[in-house]
């Protein structure tokens, strides 16, 4: 049997990257190497969620210690002194949840891992949807990353973000077709046992499930 | 007095970045924030060298724990099981000293740090000189990184590699004008007390000092 080409996938334990993992597994074209970044996020429960998903799919987890990122630059996601704002992504306050340059850092390390594995591509679940809180989920950013990935090694490395132009409701629609177990995903930024239901991340998730007329299987403190 | 704009500089403790640090300090346009990456390199003496230089210049050091990079991908610079090859940079064996995607990883984390500091630019001492062992010191790579840096945050972040088109002899010529203390630099990849004088990195350094008709102030095991 011919060996499959290898792909690295950045897995956060959230809805987008978990759906993408199921999607790539379903397509069965690549041998998948997921990498999970521990960057000191308050919502480290997402790491446990990612590991549960991988256990279910019988793929070994690889957790990368990237606490450095949380130390280097402040964000509401990594500093106790900055509260996670409530509200919707459209609001200015949500910019406090930007982890400076997170996607470039994740992608660059995922590329190092991919070069070592002789993988040909790195997947990540970025989507810009209908809001623009994060500069590094924009189409032009992804295109520029694809160009730099082409040049960073003697062999061309590819980057793909297949959900980039979808919104979260469309991603969940795809996930429901793939029978993704969304009980094993974490979206809330607050890191408490139950999701807060109030932060921008929870709001977007709840709306996306509602649009699909499906009940979100995770527990909330309030909705 | 008006505050100076801030700049992050990636400092390795080698000849190129040390010269660049002196150069930027001499120009006195930026308030400088050097960052030193500990990525599990065998030649961790370069970190001590970088710290000595900063102490001399009265700039506080910041050492970033990036052991993850050494773990993610194999290289002769980070794995005891892979010997550092002897010879010149032109030789195929020198490709074993490539740390996969090192410059993108360094730059991406330096950008995170710069965004947090509200710095406007990241400097690094890459030069392609007259050999091409490292894909991520090519002009087209640097140009692509400049483009992605422009897009990764809501504010434009700049990257500059002012020595990119110079060779090591030209960098040392500039450093001699600036009275750089080259006794506080480490170039050898082997990590022993004295420089080996035989690896590609030592060979290039020795030739560059010879071209400038100056004796290299560091100690060698053999030349």
Can you tell me the residue ranges of chain A where pLDDT is under 50 for at least 5 consecutive residues?
Answer: none
Under CATH, the homologous superfamily of chain A reads HUPs
Average pLDDT taken over every residue of chain A? 90
Round the Cα radius of gyration of chain A to an integer and report it.
17 Å
DSSP strand count of chain A:
5
CATH class of chain A: Alpha Beta
Main sheet properties of chain A: 5 strands, parallel
Largest interface: A-B, 40 and 40 residues
CATH architectural type of chain A: 3-Layer(aba) Sandwich
How much helix is in the residues of chain A? 25-40%
What percent of residues of chain A are in strands?
5-15%
Separation of termini of chain A?
A: 50 Å
Could you give the order of strands across the largest sheet of chain A?
A: 3-2-1-4-5
Q: Could you spell the SSE succession of chain A in H and E letters?
A: EHEHEHHEHEHH
The SS-based structural class of chain A is alpha/beta
Total number of helices of chain A: 7
| Oligomer type | homodimer
Number of domains of chain A: 1
Q: The CATH topology of chain A, please?
A: Rossmann fold
- Sum up the overall morphology of chain A in one term: globular
């Amino acid at each position: 049997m011919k060996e499959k080409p290898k792909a690295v996938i950045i897995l956060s334990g959230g809805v987008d990257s978990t759906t993408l993992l199921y999607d790539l597994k379903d397509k069965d074209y690549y041998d998948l190497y997921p990498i999970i970044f521990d960057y000191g996020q308050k919502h480290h429960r997402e790491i446990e969620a990612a590991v549960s998903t991988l256990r279910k799919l019988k793929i070994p987890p690889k957790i990368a210690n990237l606490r450095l990122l949380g130390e280097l630059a402040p964000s509401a996601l990594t500093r106790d002194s900055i509260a996670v704002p409530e509200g919707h992504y459209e609001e200015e306050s949500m910019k406090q949840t930007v982890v400076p340059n997170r996607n470039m850092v994740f992608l660059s390390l995922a590329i190092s891992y991919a070069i070592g594995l002789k993988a040909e591509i790195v997947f990540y679940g970025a989507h810009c949807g209908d809001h623009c809180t994060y500069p590094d989920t924009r189409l032009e950013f992804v295109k520029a990353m694809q160009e730099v990935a082409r040049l960073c090694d003697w062999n061309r490395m590819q980057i793909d973000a297949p959900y980039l132009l979808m919104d979260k409701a469309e991603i969940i629609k795809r996930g429901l077709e793939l029978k993704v177990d969304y009980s094993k995903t974490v979206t809330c930024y607050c890191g408490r046992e139950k999701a807060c239901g109030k932060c921008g991340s929870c709001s977007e998730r709840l709306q996306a499930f509602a649009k699909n007329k499906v009940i979100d299987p995770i527990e909330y403190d309030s909705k």
